[in-house]
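Onboarding guide, step 5: your first structure request.
Type a short instruction followed by the sequence, for example:

Predict the 3D structure of this protein.
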Amino acid sequence: MHISEGVLPGWILVTGWVLTAAGTYVGLRKMNQKNLPLAALMSAVFFVASLIHVPLGPTSVHLLFNGLTGLLLGWAAFPVLLVALFLQAVLFQFGGITVLGVNTFNMAIGGVAAYYLCKPFLRRNKGIAVAGILGAVVAVSTAGLLVALELITIGQEFVVNAKLVLLAHIPVMIIEAIVNVFVLYFIKKNLPEILELEGREK
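The system replies with structure tokens like these:
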């Protein structure tokens, strides 16, 4: 779901950088030494998962785990995903530097939205499954919708591409929902302190 260089107009690129800079500032303010290892881990998970592209019809898809990143780190999803996307752009030419702000915002804002929507469920044992499923649906669909809207603003010739982006990521949403549930149950059982929401809202 990376948007490549030279596709988007300048005003979208600037808007993406401004929004990502604001989100990264907030995320860094909310990070602390306790969640730095988790932040590094989730950045690595996103980096590796989104490098593996699976052909699906005329396009290809990859796992995102932006929902899981948001559920575990809240606003820190912005700096975490920014680092991963920057390394992908520099090392593998996925996306690019000028479009880095847009790609980061597309991925991170859905994770932040999932965090706030799922907070009530993460506090309860019986709500873990709901949080995992809802987190994946919200984060992946938000990223897909943003990419689709950005492509549509370019011109009618990209409408088909926008529709393909949305349809192709429905399977991704389902797979990530399942993975999220298992990961959250594991964390709840073995490392429940990671889900202590108060520690991420300083």
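Each response can be followed by summary notes, for example: The two ends are 32 Å apart (CA to CA).
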